[in-house]
Amino acid sequence: MASQTQGIQQLLAAEKRAAEKVAEARKRKARRLKQAKEEAQDEIEKYRQERERQFKEFENKHMGSKEDVAARIEADTRIKIDEMQKAVNLHKEVVIVKVLELVYDIKPELHKNYRATLK
């Protein structure tokens, strides 16, 4: 009987050591997964920053900075407004004269749809 009890004790001790090894292996696996996840996040962040830098270089190369674009639009707008103002000043007198002629030269006549009923 003593040998059976001793055998059972050995089995229980072996089972306990196996459970500890399994638990330790799970902890190592969890640490490795966490470390791999952190490394992947770092790599993703570095890649994102690199692509952002490349995009900004591309944008500056092909479109210029936002201030440059705004300045170009402002300059174009000023040029167009100046051109319109010159056109207005050039044609203003002629238009005023024509409008006044139309207002002052009234020619009374019957409308073409008016029917003469006095016959």
UniProtKB/TrEMBL annotation:
**InterPro entries referenced in this protein's UniProt entry, alphabetically:** V-ATPase_G
Q: Does the keyword Ribosomal protein apply?
A: no
Among Gene3D superfamilies, the record links this protein to: 1.20.5.2950
* Pfam families xref list: V-ATPase_G
Which is an annotated GO molecular function term of this record?
ATP hydrolysis activity
Q: In its keyword annotation, does this UniProt entry include Hydrolase?
A: no
Keywords from the UniProt entry: Coiled coil, Hydrogen ion transport, Ion transport, Transport
| Coiled-coil stretches noted in the UniProt entry, renumbered to this chain | 8-57
Residue ranges annotated as transmembrane are none
- Which GO biological process categories is it annotated with? synaptic vesicle lumen acidification
The GO cellular component terms are: presynapse; vacuolar proton-transporting V-type ATPase, V1 domain
What does this protein's UniProt record list under function?
A: Subunit of the V1 complex of vacuolar(H+)-ATPase (V-ATPase), a multisubunit enzyme composed of a peripheral complex (V1) that hydrolyzes ATP and a membrane integral complex (V0) that translocates protons. V-ATPase is responsible for acidifying and maintaining the pH of intracellular compartments and in some cell types, is targeted to the plasma membrane, where it is responsible for acidifying the extracellular environment.
Q: Which family does it belong to?
A: Belongs to the V-ATPase G subunit family.
Subunit structure and binding partners: V-ATPase is a heteromultimeric enzyme made up of two complexes: the ATP-hydrolytic V1 complex and the proton translocation V0 complex.
Q: Do you know which PANTHER family this protein is assigned to?
A: V-TYPE PROTON ATPASE SUBUNIT G, VACUOLAR ATP SYNTHASE SUBUNIT G
Give the protein name, as stated in the record: V-type proton ATPase subunit G
Q: Which organism is it from?
A: Nasutitermes takasagoensis
